[in-house]
Amino acid sequence: MAAYVVNEIWVTDPELFQTYVAQVPATIARHGGRYVVRSGATETVHGEPPGRIVILEFADRAAALAWRSSPDYQAILPIRDASSTSRVYVVDGYAA
Prior knowledge:
Blueprint: E1 3-11, H1 14-30, E2 34-38, E3 52-58, H2 61-69, H3 71-83, E4 84-92
Helix pairs in contact: 1-3
């Protein structure tokens, strides 16, 4: 079953954050992931809006967690942490 990494991101240093943005797609692709949502226009219908929403799809939960803990992603995660605050979730897809 597919799993999704859901990111709610508030960028605090846009210039530094772009350094992270430039490097992260290759790490996702190496782990079989793909972007489903990459910070398009949002419209809040309830609650406080995040600055950005990013949703990634992986084959399963194990693949999503392997990407997150991989050395290639961990090498650039400090850039993200220094330039933003976020909430990140791994959510299983729905099997009908």
